[in-house]
Amino acid sequence: MALYSIIIHKDAAEMVEWANKIYPYYAIPFQIFIPVIVWITAEIKSKLSGKSNKTKDVTAKN
What we know:
The protein has about 60 residues and is an all-alpha fold. It is about 90% helix and about 0% strand.
């Protein structure tokens, strides 16, 4: 990462400016949107697998 930062930014002041002005907007998808999408997907899969497990239990008892 340190070597990559040397390639991207001319100096530390430019990096700090980028971190203050651009990074908050850059980070929003990774900190909010992607986790919410993953959480919703997990909830949907959990509910679907819960329904399929209940039907298997009912047929197994009969």
